[in-house]
Amino acid sequence: MSNSLGKLFKLTTFGESHGSAIGGIIDGCPAGIELDFKAIQYELNRRKPGQSKITTQRKEDDEVEFLSGIFEGKTTGTAIGFQIKNTNQKSKDYSHNTDVYRPSHADYTYDKKYGFRDHKGGGRSSARDTANWIVGGAIARQILINVNINAFTTSIGDINLEKPYQDLDLSKTENNIVRCPDNVISEKMINLIDNIRKQGDTIGGTITCVIKNVPIGLGEPVFDKLHANLGKAMLSINAVKGFEYGSGFSGAKMKGSRHNDIFNEDGSTQTNHSGGIQGGISNGMDIYFKVAFKPVATIMKKQQTINSKGEIVEIQGKGRHDPCVVPRAVPIVEALSAMVLVDLLLIHNARK
Ligand SMILES: Cc1cc2nc3c(=O)[nH]c(=O)nc-3n(C[C@H](O)[C@H](O)[C@H](O)COP(=O)(O)O)c2cc1C
Fold this sequence. Notes:
The protein is α+β, with helices and mostly antiparallel strands. The protein has helices at residues 37-47, 107-114, 130-143, 183-198, 226-235, 248-251, 256-259, 326-350, and strands spanning 4-5, 10-14, 21-27, 64-66, 70-71, 74-75, 80-85, 148-156, 159-160, 205-212, 240-245, 277-278, 281-282, 287-293, 302-306, 312-316. The protein contains 8 helices and 16 strands. Bound molecules: flavin mononucleotide. Flavin mononucleotide binds at residues 56, 105-106, 122, 125-127, 130, 237-239, 296-298, 321-322, 325, 328-329. Flavin mononucleotide (FMN) is lined by residues 56, 105-106, 122, 125-127, 130, 237-239, 296-298, 321-322, 325, 328-329.
């Protein structure tokens, strides 16, 4: 399997949803970073389950325990080992799908690839691992001192936040449980998720991420372009179906004369269809991108599926699941962005 992200700032993770613990090793973190442990826990709390009526009701404290690589509150430059204990597994909730594949989950492909699978909570395919990513990201953010990374919910189902990000007050993102920085639209999103949950169904949505103050020069042509690494990281998040940056798919409809970002004398540009990245390298303008999440697979309604013998059977989800993963994925998008940027920053600095 492939359990690591990054080249110089490298996070390697382990763990399953219903094992005793998850955790990881961060290799390549520079020495002497004075860690703010409260900031790390704050990010974990933003992702953790059971935080509101529109998330799964699984209750995990998600307290991270650091095992190595830190001395007197500072990183030592050696491997940072950490673990997060799983405390609220209810494996019986999964006894109904030991031999049955949930449609559009990872059950069928894991079984076919590895010959058998851990059916409890989806095993390694579970988004439980993303708690580890949050730890890596929260440390990465503490290296990126002046860089501001803000992700927020821009749509749930058909409800869209139409305003451009420049017209939003991104400090309001945490003011509501859906993490949309608009009081009116966020209410509509919350009601939609709640109704979908009551129907036993799930719904998807999009997250936009805006990154400001990125130094010029991050990104390594040709296969570690900044947008390629961001895209790979975002497409590694469970349930992600799409990634676009800058003008994205709408750029395909424009003429070059409109799409080109005209330079100001200082090298900044009058528009930013490039999304802060040209030739795979940051140009100092805001980086912005959008990530699309599907409605997750486990629904409480009956559906047709097959079992491992290829027989047609019926399945109905049980246990505690997210009706919409978008609100919990906002900090995950930020964490991965931070790790990608730190990795490319260290690589860029290494060539100086
Ligand atoms: C924060 C988060 C929570 C998730 N919770 C659930 C869940 O409760 N039920 C579910 O079926 N899928 C959930 N997923 C998605 C599955 O992990 C994912 O759909 C599955 O591993 C199959 O991978 P794929 O959708 O990327 O193909 C969650 C994803 C994220 C990001």
